Structure formats: structure tokens, C-alpha cells
Amino acid sequence: MTTKNNHFIPWAVLLSLLFGTAALSAAEDKKKGEGKTDKVQVIIQTVPPKKAMVYWGKKNLGLIPTPKPLIVERPRDSGPMDLVIRATGYLPVHTRATTFSDMRLAVKLTPVTDKHTLFGYRSEPAPANPDGGAPAPAPAPSPQPAPGPLAPTP
To answer: Is the pTM higher than 0.70?
Structure first.
């Protein structure tokens, strides 16, 4: 019986050390979290550097001043931001920014003339027929001359 009691003492010490360490690490994490601000910065720039408008839904967040980036401040953990970047002569770019921590977005702009180089590009459809794709009507049969009187058979 003495051997069983000897085994319980090391386990008890080990468990107290583990729980004590966990409590210390939680307190350290809390101290580290105090250094964080309640806001995050989303930094947006374009490649190549061009003036572009940034939209979040219908809201205009601002113009990207070249060569500087646009800096948007949002509350921390306020959810994702679905952004649209529009520049004259380039295709619009849809992207998502998160607010978990500070984020830097480098958005590659593609000229309209180079849209065929993008993955998933589809060529323009042929112009629609004015009849909506209905088959053409069958031609009217040509009139044939009426048969004459029948000749007697010999």
C-alpha cells in the first residue's frame, strides 16, 4: 500500500504544476492583449500604382492616392469587408479584407484590353438573333401549272 501512496504524490505535484502554469500563461496572455488597440488598419494599394476608388458595398471609402496607399480604420473583429476597387481603363477587382488584425492589400489591376489573360475568361457571346432563335419558316411551295386534259390511251 505504501507504493500506491508514493505514486500519488508525484502525480499531484505534476497536476498542480500544470494548472499553475496554465494560470500563469493565461495571465500573461491577458497582459499581452492590453497592448492591442480597439481599431485595425486596412491598408490598400494597387499594382501598378494607379488612382482607384474603393467601395464597400455602396459606400465610397475613398480614392487611393498614388503612390501612397489608402488607409481605412475599422473596429477590431467587426467582420469581413467585401471591397470593390475600380480604376479607369482597368477591370473592377472584388476582394475581401478581414478585421482580426492589421491588414495590407496589394490589388493587381488588369487592363480591359488584357482581360483574355485572366483565368476563367469567356469570350463575348454572339449577337442575339432578332427572332429570338426561332427556326426560319419553311418556304412556300412553288405553284405548278395545272395539268391539261388527259390524252386517250391507244
So the answer is: no
